[in-house]
Specification:
Chains A, B: Its EC number is 2.7.7.72. Chains A, B: Pfam families: CAA_C (PF21133), NTP_transf_2 (PF01909), tRNA_NucTransf2 (PF09249). Chains A, B: It comes from Methanolapillus africanus. Chains A, B: InterPro entries: CAA_C, CCA-adding_arc, CCA_tRNA_nucleotrans_2, NT_2-5OAS_ClassI-CCAase, NT_sf, NuclTrfase_I-like_C, Polymerase_NTP_transf_dom, tRNA_NucTransf2. The structure is a homodimer of 468-residue chains. In chain A, α1 packs across α6. In chain A, β7 and β8 form a beta hairpin. Chain A is built from 16 helices and 15 strands. Chain A folds into four domains: 118 residues, Beta Polymerase, domain 2; 115 residues, CCA tRNA nucleotidyltransferase, domain 2 (Poly(a)-polymerase, middle domain, Orthogonal Bundle); 127 residues, 2-Layer Sandwich (Alpha-Beta Plaits); 43 residues, no CATH class. With 468 residues, chain A is α+β, with helices and mostly antiparallel strands. Chain A is globular, with a radius of gyration of 27 Å. In chain A, 40% of the residues are buried. In chain A, strands 1-2-5-4-3 form a five-stranded mixed β-sheet, with helices on both faces. In chain A, strands 10-11-9-15 form a four-stranded antiparallel β-sheet. Chain A has a three-stranded mixed β-sheet with strand order 6-7-8, covered by helices on one side.
Chain lengths: 468, 468
């Protein structure tokens, strides 16, 4: 928190400017009639298939529900996602529900063009059909969203809440989603840590319009709280707190990272100052040619150290938290050992690649080790005993209240440090530990230059050239 | 402060061990009878000269007073200091006192072998006579030490307090002074920041003996307070607080640095654990040969940057505070600009030399500049405006709540940084500023190797090899 004056709301551009931008942007992001018709047809067909299949299996207690942006007309043109939930009575056991839903949904999946067995917290089936990406998700039909048996049971309540309030504001949701996409803050998957679709819809409902969301977001600060139903029951330590209208205990924005929160605030400030259709165009990064990469690194003058290993075959939401922990952990290990860390990055393709950009991968032999304060007499004595007249000791002195030894540094290169510490001290989640234990490579500039994956080079281009 | 257990007092060596050490050390540090007789003779002769000279000038209101360790038999053999004060009545004006004392003391000085006009807070005359260093100091004869007209007026009160209480404990004072000298913590001049003679005497009076001072000092912590007269009236934020028995407002240990305080505690702990006569032998450092210096620097792998300029002709107590400020200031300027500072040093000979030891005198071009948090909207906007699409900008991003620019570093060498900042931003006291403004040289390893002053190379030897 700071005491700086917020003045961005001082001069809000003319309403006509906003109207003009809306008129310019909306036709590009609003689904066409043909798109809508096709989506409705696929959705209807699948709902009918679900009903017929249930009937075939004699399952008369299930209810298929269409949820998600497709159901509330808040989907961006080109986004072809359909979410269909199949709800079971609350008193069905989880085991029975999983067995029954699997039989049902696998049969339904046959009507798709392809299918895939997926699971996050619980299993679901993903199919493609007529160019649409369809999730078929079993859930429980609970009485209220605060009484759920599985995380997905909330979704029908969310859908219901939005459908009742969003009519007339769908365009505002589309504008907000596109604005967030272009700013890199849309998408609540762990890898991204941005805003979810439901969250954008709640913001539009609360503030009234796209422009009002931005006008207000421009002066948000850490801890900004929105409680539409005025029913909050728990304190939340998150950058943004949006109490779920269907569950007083839950913060809809719990997965929003501080960085994404701040990026949105900054983008909102800039938009309110100089609104333009440019804010709705997402910058694409081409794969960075290796020669250009080498050239940039020469200009930066920094050095890379990293670790590469085979990517565990896990969903992104499982894998990325583990990669981020390893990324942070390697950064900390290097920092604690006097390496000057400029950036850390994590990439997952066929290989997982953790990269740390350093001022230098080499340090001089001299290391300054600050010991205990003299009044911790036992510790001071053992520090003294360890370094006094030791081969590795240059000097042993007292500075302020601390014993200080100047000694020969054990890890003079970042590579030797990581090789020694990665399995012993780095924070390794279960799947990443298994993968690293199976084998890893310590990499530097030369090894990075040999990476072929174009996705890696697009990603690297963004890391090295992005300007908000 | 820490919660570590202090256990050094658990097992105190046998009294016989201490006696043996005393018997071994005292003959070396106690002045011989011949030394004493000579000192008394010189002292008596000078006192007589003062009285006769005063009579000659018709000054019948002055009183000469012998103060200092020479007066209370707490001087170490070989230390040939005599302090003679000439006191004037309190109602004499400062101006008159200075004029009269100058006439008087200049006349007295003629009986010396050489003389020098000196001043700290106020002027005094320093003479040598018969191998003794004599300070002739004018002061006011005030009613109490808490009512002084100049800082030196306290000294007669101190002398009086000690003389009454020290008989029988002089050997303990000699042992404590010698122990402190060997540990490098004796001497309260600003350059050293250690214990004064008066302070050591008070410690012996308070704790009773040399060994009891050390036994207790071994478990001192920051803020240790000793108030012999139980008359403290002010709070002091110093490592050691010893309330002046002659002035309740004053901390006798106010000039003691945290480092010297801690060094004494540590030495006391080690002595109480393994007492030996070795603790009373001061390690002397020979001048470090340049070839050996180069060899050590190669092993350390670090680099030097420094500043050299002609030493202002000022007393150490005036010069050193200014040198230390510049030393700290250069260290901070380098640190803030990403240079990894290992050590800073200040030396004064014919030249003043400030040295900073760095991991590297060069940094890569990439600099990471962390800007304001996004919610400081005006500042964020101006940071954005400054770096967006600037020639020097690599990237401009948001990380957590902050705008972060990766830019081309302005100061890629420590030399260029210091050259640009020393006169503009470094903390320069009056005399050091004048000297640096007259001209300075930025130095590195090669220039250091050309320094001829043996005192510098003794000092450097200690910096690079000292082990407590």
């Amino acid at each position: 928190m700071t005491s700086h004056k917020i003045s961005n709301a001082d001069q809000i551009p003319d309403a006509a400017v906003f109207s003009q931008i809306r008129a310019q942007v909306l036709p590009k992001i609003r689904p066409s009639d043909a798109e809508r018709t096709k989506l409705e047809a696929v959705k209807a067909e699948l709902l009918e298939t679900i009903c017929k299949t249930a009937e075939m299996f004699g399952e008369d207690d299930i209810v298929p529900i269409s949820v998600g942006s497709a159901e509330r007309s808040t989907w961006l043109s080109g986004n072809h996602d359909i979410d269909l939930f199949v709800s079971y009575p609350e008193d069905v056991s989880r085991q029975d529900m999983e067995t029954r839903s699997r039989r049902l949904l696998m049969e339904v999946a046959k009507s798709g063009d392809s299918w895939e067995d997926r699971h996050s917290e619980h299993p679901y089936i993903h199919i493609t059909k007529g160019g649409f990406e369809v999730d078929l998700v079993p859930c429980f039909r609970v009485k209220s969203a605060s009484d759920i048996k599985s995380a997905v049971d909330r979704t029908p309540f969310h859908c219901c809440f939005i459908k009742e309030r969003i009519p007339g504001k769908q365009d505002d949701v589309l504008l907000l989603k596109q604005f967030m996409k272009s700013s890199g803050v849309y998408g609540s998957e762990v890898r991204n840590g941005g805003f979810s679709g439901y969250l954008t819809e709640l913001l539009v409902i609360w503030y009234g319009s796209f422009e009002d969301v931005l006008k207000n977001a421009a002066s948000w600060r850490f801890g900004q709280t929105i409680d539409i139903m005025g029913h909050q029951t728990l304190a939340h330590e998150d950058p943004l707190v949006v109490i779920d209208p269907t569950d007083p205990k839950r913060n809809v924005a719990a997965a929003l990272s501080l960085t994404r929160f701040a990026q949105f605030i900054n983008a909102a400030q800039r938009y309110m100052k100089n609104p333009s259709a440019e804010f709705f165009v997402k910058k694409e990064y081409a794969p960075l040619p290796v020669a250009e990469f080498k050239n940039i690194m020469k200009k930066r003058g920094t050095e890379w150290v990293g670790v590469a290993f085979d990517a565990p075959q896990k969903a992104d939401d499982t894998l990325y938290p583990q990669l981020f922990r390893l990324e942070n952990s390697l950064g900390e290990i290097l920092t604690v050992n006097d390496f000057a860390v400029m950036n850390t990055h994590a990439f997952a393709g066929d290989k997982c690649i953790i990269l740390v950009e350093l001022m230098s991968r080499m340090l001089p032999p001299l290391q300054r080790r600050v010991g205990p304060p003299v009044w911790a007499a036992d510790n001071a004595q053992s520090f003294y005993g360890k370094y006094k007249d030791a081969d590795e000791t240059f000097t042993l002195k007292i500075k302020n209240e601390y014993l200080v030894a100047e000694i020969v540094r054990k890890y003079q290169t970042a590579e030797s440090l990581i090789a020694d510490k990665i399995l012993k001290e780095a924070a390794l989640g279960r799947h990443v530990r298994a993968a690293v234990s199976d084998g890893y490579q310590i990499i530097g500039l030369d090894e990075i230059c040999q990476i072929q994956d174009p996705a890696f080079w697009k990603w690297m281009n963004e890391k090295l050239t992005k300007q908000i």
